[in-house]
Amino acid sequence: MEIVHVYTKLRAELGRQCLFSDRPAELLLDVLPEPSLVLEFIPKTPREQAQGVDCDMSEHQVNTERFQSNSCGINHVEGGWPKDVNPEEMEQTIRFRKKVEKDEGYINSILQLSSVMEHCIRQNNAVDIYQEYLEDEEEVERSQESPSAKTINVFRDPNEVKRTVTALSWHPDCGSKLAAAYSCLEFQKTSKDMSLDSYIWDIENPDRPEMTLKPTSPLVCLNYNPKDPHILVGGGFNGQIAYWDTRRGSQPVEISSVENSHRDPVYKIVWLQSKTGTDAFSASTDGQILWWDVRKLSEPTERLVLDLGREGNLSRALGAISLEFESTMPTKFMVGTEQGLVVSCNRKAKTPAEKIVCTYEGHHGPIYALQRNPFFPKNFLTVGDWTARIWSEDIKDSSIMWTKYQMSFLMDACWSPVRPSVFFTVKNDGVLEVWDILFKQNVPALSLKVCDGALNSVCVQDNGRLVACGSQQGEVTLLEICSELSTLQKNEKNLLSAMFERETKREKILESRQREMRLKERSRSEQGKEEEGGQEEGEETPEELIIRAEEEFSEMVETEQKRRKEKEDGSNKL
Predict the structure, then answer these.
(1) Superfamily of domain 154-498
(2) 104-126 and 90-101 helices cross at what angle (nearest 10)?
(3) Residue 199 CA, distance from chain mean position
């Protein structure tokens, strides 16, 4: 028999207990300096230096992991019919409905439900839950806010070798999805490890793309179909056109043949207004504009060569960079070229020579962006070199408004879909600028540093609140603009219309004066009265003509203002 003795004691009572006590400071050792060792040291100038020891990132148990969600759908099949009724047969379904409607139980149920539903409808109609109270006060407060924007999400290229975001397109229905095209536009920097994929992102989930598009060549442009949100069309770096149906997977449904496609990268592709909703046209630096029906991409339906000599010579054609098509003007479209020209074209012309109507010249380099104002289609915006310019179709020699020359290249621009006076520009230094030309014409209303690299593309959601910017490092930054820049202001359309008319009239006056000066110079040269370097007595110099034209314009404006004021005073007296 084993004898066991159990000894119990608290763990705190085991071992020697530490007892601390307070006592004053005590000098244990005092070492005096040695004078003979002074010569062996070099005195150093005293300085102050601050060092930070904070970590770049900190992790704590309160940090939660991001929830990853997957979107999936189901196919709904109509059910509830008896076995002897075929729901695909119209006669059987009608007969069954009539039979059910005569049933007393069905009639009693409908009468009971109708009274409940009527009560709810009356209750909803009693109070307007969507009514906005104190709207005037909100507008006053909104005008006092300074323009601002905040970053919501950043979508990064999931591949190791980063590529430029060359194009962005919002989902036409809900605006909760964003399609991004990725490509490397610098041919010498491409590598074998570079991915060809482009992606569709869900704006609520930046961790991974919702869908991957797998083209045969990197996509330079990508665009949603405004009529069918499941269909996208894109242009590749090798000049081919492809279209996807998101219901059929990541592979393209059809691709154009190499022989009948562009010879250079497709920089822009736009959907056309048609009954079928399957027509589009594309632009490339090979000097061709090609029209396509995505249901049959074996060959283009129409072709236009951008030869200003109107001879269709492809060797003299201008390279196309940007396109503009307005559905309210189905016969017109505009092309921005590498040479800084905007070419206005008429698609319904009978001959290719008549399709090129006129040109607008005003940029020193390629026109990366070209878009009509959604509220005033006669006025359009262009971006090229270091400036953004606003044009009028009636003035071909000069733009009516323009920004000052920036320190870096402007890469893309677009109008706000809700405010006619607001447009967005992105620059090569990673800055997003928001211009409100009714508020300021010389400087942007908001300038925001989005990233360290260059910004290459910008796209605004249909509600005007969300702005997506694509960078050269493969990042898509999603920003939310303040309500002041995304809400239509009071009397904004009338004020902007008056501004465009005033600037157009001013340019017309200056253009006519310039034409008169040229005619005078031509007549003097024909008559031979002008000596070299001299000037006839009594004639005005070009500077004096410009000053006189500006004075005449100011007098016209003052006369018009006085007339309007007198008219208003007369109406007030009545």
Answers:
(1) YVTN repeat-like/Quinoprotein amine dehydrogenase (2.130.10.10)
(2) 80
(3) 17
- Contact residues for 148 (Cβ-Cβ < 8 A; gap 6+): 446, 482
What gap in Å lies between CA 469 and CA 494, rounded to an integer? Answer: 30
pTM of the model: 0.66
User: How far is residue 95's CA from residue 568's CA, in Å, rounded to a whole number?
Assistant: 70
> Residue 467 has which token pair?
């702005």
Backbone dihedral angles phi then psi of residue 410, each to the nearest 5 degrees? -95, 130
pLDDT in tens, 290-319: 998 888 888 888 888 888 887 778 888 888
Name the residue type at position 108.
N
Place of tokens 């010579």: 313
CB neighbourhood size of 16 (10 A): 5
SS3 72: coil
Per-residue burial over 361-382, b = 16 or more CB atoms within 10 Å of its CB, e = otherwise? ebbeebbbbbbbbebbeebbbb
Per the document, the length of the chain is: 574
Alpha-carbon span 371 to 325, nearest angstrom: 8
**Dihedral sign computed on CA atoms, order 501, 504, 506, 509:** negative
φ/ψ of 424, rounded to 5, equals -115, 140
Per-residue pLDDT tens for 144-179?
A: 568 888 888 899 988 888 889 999 999 988 778 999
